[in-house]
Design goal:
The complex is a heterodimer. By secondary structure, chain A is α/β, with parallel strands linked by helices. Chain A contains 24 helices and 16 strands. In chain A, the strands form three sheets. A seven-stranded parallel beta sheet of chain A has the order 4-5-3-6-7-2-10, with helices on both faces. In chain A, strands 11-16-15-12-14-13 form a six-stranded parallel beta sheet, with helices on both faces. Chain B has a six-stranded mixed beta sheet with strand order 8-7-6-10-5-9. In chain B, strands 1-2-3-4 form a four-stranded mixed beta sheet. Chain B has twelve helices and ten strands. Chain B has two domains: about 120 residues, no CATH class; about 170 residues, no CATH class. By secondary structure, chain B is of the alpha+beta class. The chains are: A alpha/beta, B alpha+beta. The interface between A and B is large, with 90 and 111 residues.
């Protein structure tokens, strides 16, 4: 109970003489063995017993070496609490002013426990690297644990080694956790035996990238980070709040338990309803003590404008026919499954696929048909296949190809589904447009190679969501979203691939939306929610978006399948019903 | 008292002006180092040097323990390392180009022989960037620190009017003070203790560092002292502790305040989590005390002092 001892000292200290360090700040001598070594050195020197008369000039270097050592000791000191020593140690780049300011703020104001919540593309990694290097240089950190998404483990290790000359090791084996500085994936870290291994160590710094994975205090992720013994904590996320205020409370409890008061107090003080904040100013002030957020506009980083355009696509009569019959099927099936407590996830997927491409939907339908036992279901599915076979042209895909042809430069097409991606590739090839592919599971080397191919040889890159993480494609400035993710942050991350530091031209974003389908409403909501988010996190405004993520997707599905008319759906989806997103609102999203 | 400490602070910052973060002073430093360890300079140009390392230096700067094990076990002739150090990015690019050109020229003159047939075409050697923060410079720093720990010396005879004049022995004690809470601040200090009359002089090194010194036999210096070396070291440490206690403590006070605030918050938080469940409460208490421990490690202010260099210096009586 060493700590208790300290605490007693501290509570007494206020009455002590403040002019002197006195008892409260212990002065300890370290590395005293140098004294004994010196005595030994003198004795050996006496044995050599060289007289002043026969001075050997080769020994003349001793004093020079002594001077050099003094000089090097002095140059390595941390002369004050404030200076950012790490700035002299970075390699091959110059940190931007807002990154330096953020790093200083983490060290001096937030005292090493912070949420770095810069917008995508402003260099959270750089800020974190500066902070880590600073603690290493000052001898305040030795054991550092970095928990990052699996796909970014190598990238993080590489960047820390190259840019900051921090000897970070990617975790491959159990033994690697024993290393001083280790980068591992949070998904393996939360499982045994890794978990116990990590909990048995004392860490000086714990860093979690994509920290929105810690928003729920009932998850293993949160529990792990909460239990880790640690001095400094850095949480990196562009989206500290996705759903509601509880998440913010969960994140902050990892950094400074009680900063926002107990859960109850917090709720009483700040939460008036799930999405509304009481005392916003006070909350903003408190949150500012643990959170740093640079926004593109304020950071002084010049980024060209984004030009977002929603392209409405009119489905052909055949496609509309298929869409409607699948909708009807989904509605009845949904009711059945809910009443029988069966999973509705396949329905959700089908609903989203049918908005993406017929091809993707048909692959799912085929799978369902093979599994189906009910004769009427099989008949249904066969009917869909029949309807689909009548469709000669997939309007949306053709529109995307048209857009590619119109684009003066390179172009990225994003889709959520591999099947759609395959079909797109096939069509692009038919049209003679050079194309490269990007999907989840690619190794870093393959991603790099594909990026290179795209930059030098191809015109179009077709990517799925999972393939897009951790790649930078500033050389391209046009993007087509064939289908839209139902989570606004994922859309933001897509755009962040091209709209980031280094981009020199205006970014054109085309969102393809089919008229008269659920998608049309979703796009509207997406726009509104991005606006909401920006105002919420950028300045911690009093409104937080509704729930996104899987829960939200489930709710959308439920609404879309139970609402009797489009109008009913619209009013159910819109939180301030009767007051649809104004045009002005939408523009403000993409300043 | 406070003006005194301000003066001391100023001195520290004056020391920093010769900072090695500047390319020119770094080059001067590295040149002196290699001269002092008698490494041969094979080639030089602006912001660029090539040094051939003596064996002992090689072992300290180049990490290849297995190579040395093999060389020593098999009694082979060791191949010395040639360091090609560029101090700026420009020099690095320029020299790499030169090395490449020289290499291709050499390859043209002597066409591939049998050995290159086995090993493949040899590549041109590459220069490395030696900037502040680089791995190699860290190695040089630790080599310097090891080699420059101790000294026994006297001012060079050329400076002395009479060589045989009696020398007064002094203990020179250089060290670093680290004030530590969640951040650190360090101060360089130096104290001299006269081994004859026990006189204590602060900033002793700064007063003698510009002198030319030559080695001297310690027995000559220690023959008639009234203060044993060990006792002198104790005195130097006591003096340094006394000086430390005069330093301002605002940093420690505010660290304590931070600790107290967060300590209260933490306790409040855990009190709110308590439930009826006894086992769960025990777990929470454990977690709470762990967190308090971490908090104490983070904030509780300490001062760490260490001696980094020691010397026995004979100074002419009037100095």
């Amino acid at each position: 109970m060493d700590s208790m001892h300290h605490i007693e000292l501290l509570s007494n200290s206020s009455t002590e003489n403040k002019g002197e360090l006195g008892l409260s700040v212990p002065v300890t001598w370290v590395q005293q063995e140098l004294r004994h070594a010196f005595t030994g050195y003198i004795q050996t020197a006496m044995l050599c017993n060289h007289d002043a008369a026969d001075l050997d000039t080769s020994n003349f270097s001793d004093w020079r070496m002594f001077q050099l050592a003094a000089e090097s000791f002095q140059s390595q000191l941390a002369p004050d609490f404030e200076e950012l020593l790490s700035l002299n140690h970075v390699f091959g780049f110059h940190p931007l002013p807002h990154q330096v300011t953020a790093a200083k703020k983490v060290l001096q104001d937030l005292r090493g426990r912070a949420i770095l919540a810069d917008e995508v593309g402003l260099g959270k990694t750089i800020e974190a690297g500066l902070v880590l290097k600073e603690y290493l240089l000052r001898g305040l950190a030795r054991k550092i644990l970095l928990l990052v998404p699996t796909s970014l483990v190598l990238q993080w290790s590489r960047e820390l080694n190259q840019k900051f000359r921090i000897a970070a090791h990617p975790q491959r084996h159990m033994a690697d956790w024993k290393r001083d500085i280790v980068v591992g994936s949070i998904d393996s870290a939360k499982r045994e035996p890794h978990r116990s291994e990590l909990l048995s160590e004392e860490w000086d710094v714990v860093l979690v990238d994509e920290a929105h994975k810690l928003k729920n205090r009932k998850t293993k992720n949160w529990d792990l980070v909460n239990r880790l013994s640690k001095k400094y904590v850095l949480l990196l996320t562009a989206t500290p709040i996705q759903n509601d205020l509880d998440e913010l409370h969960a994140l902050i409890s990892l950094l400074r338990p009680g900063q926002l008061g107990s859960h109850q107090e917090f709720a009483e003080k700040h939460v008036s309803s799930k999405r509304k904040v009481k005392n916003p100013q006070e909350l903003r002030h408190t949150v500012g003590k643990v959170l740093i957020r640079n926004r593109r506009g304020e950071s002084g980083v010049y980024l060209p404008k984004r030009d977002v355009e929603t392209c409405y696509v009119q489905l052909s009569p055949e496609e509309l026919c298929l869409y409607d019959s699948i909708q009807a099927f989904l509605r009845s099936e949904y009711q059945q499954r809910v009443s029988r407590k069966k999973s509705v996830l396949p329905l959700l997927t089908l609903q989203r696929e049918v908005c993406s491409s017929t091809y993707a939907a048909m692959i799912s339908v085929e799978k369902m048909m093979r599994k189906a036992s009910d004769a009427s279901d099989v008949e249904n599915f066969a009917q869909f296949m029949h309807l689909a076979s009548k469709i000669r042209v997939f309007t949306k895909v053709e529109r995307a190809i048209e857009l590619c042809n119109q684009a003066p430069g390179k172009c990225i097409i994003f889709t959520e589904f591999r099947a759609t991606q395959d079909y797109l590739l096939y069509r692009l090839k038919q049209c003679g447009i050079p194309t490269v592919l990007f999907r989840g599971g690619y190794k870093k080397s393959k991603k790099d190679w594909m990026t290179d191919l795209f930059e030098k040889k191809a015109k179009v890159l077709v990517a799925t969501e999972s393939g897009g993480e951790g790649i930078n494609l500033q050389f391209c400035n046009e993007m087509i979203n064939l289908d839209l993710p139902w989570n606004p942050m994922r859309l933001e991350q897509r755009i962040g691939r091209i709209h980031r530091i280094g981009q020199t031209s205006i970014c054109k974003i085309h969102n393809l939306v089919t008229e008269g389908t659920l998608e049309e409403h979703i796009v509207q909501i997406l726009m509104e929610k991005i606006a909401l988010f920006e105002s919420a996190v950028g300045t911690i405004d009093p409104i937080f978006g509704p729930e996104f993520g899987q829960k939200y997707e489930r709710r959308l599905l439920e609404l879309s399948l139970t609402a009797n008319s489009m109008e009913e759906l619209r009013s159910a989806l819109d939180p301030n019903s009767g007051c649809p997103a104004t045009q002005k609102n939408r523009e403000s999203v993409y300043h | 008292m406070s003006s005194n400490s301000k003066k001391q602070r100023k001195r520290v910052s004056l020391n920093m002006t010769s900072s090695l973060q500047n390319v020119n002073s770094l080059m001067k430093f590295v040149d002196s180092y290699f001269k002092a360890v008698s490494a041969k300079c094979l080639y030089q140009d602006t912001e660029y040097r090539e040094y051939e390392l003596p064996r002992d230096v090689d072992k300290e700067l180049i990490e290849r323990p297995f190579y040395w094990m093999w060389v020593e076990a098999s009694g082979q002739e060791a191949q010395t390392t040639q360091l090609r150090l560029a101090f700026t990015q420009n020099a690095l690019e320029r020299e790499n180009q030169r090395l490449q050109e020289e290499h291709t020229k050499a390859m043209r003159q002597t066409p591939d022989d049998f050995s290159t047939f086995l090993t493949g075409p040899s590549r041109a050697p590459k220069a490395e960037l030696l900037d502040y923060g680089s791995f190699r410079l860290d190695k040089i720093f630790s080599s310097v620190a090891k080699r420059g720990q101790f000294i026994v010396c006297q001012p060079s005879p050329a400076l002395q009017k009479a060589r045989q004049r009696t020398l007064v022995p002094w203990l020179l004690c250089n060290g670093v003070t680290t004030m530590r809470c969640d951040l650190t601040k360090q101060m360089w200090w130096s104290i001299g203790v006269c081994l004859q009359n026990g006189q204590i002089i602060p900033a002793f090194y700064e007063q003698i560092c510009h002198l030319e010194m030559v080695p001297v036999s310690p027995s000559r210096l220690l023959s008639h002292i009234s203060l044993p070396l060990d006792e002198a070291m104790d005195r130097a440490m006591r003096e340094q502790e006394r000086l430390i206690k005069q330093l301002p403590t605002d940093w420690a006070e505010s660290a304590k305040q931070r600790f107290n605030t967060e300590y209260d918050q933490l306790n409040l938080y855990y009190r709110s989590l308590r439930t009826e469940d006894i086992q769960q409460n025990e777990e929470l208490e454990l977690e709470q005390s762990r967190k308090i421990e971490s908090l104490a490690k983070l904030y509780v202010p300490t001062v760490e002092v260490k001696i980094v260099q020691l010397g026995l210096i004979g100074l002419p009586a009037e100095a």
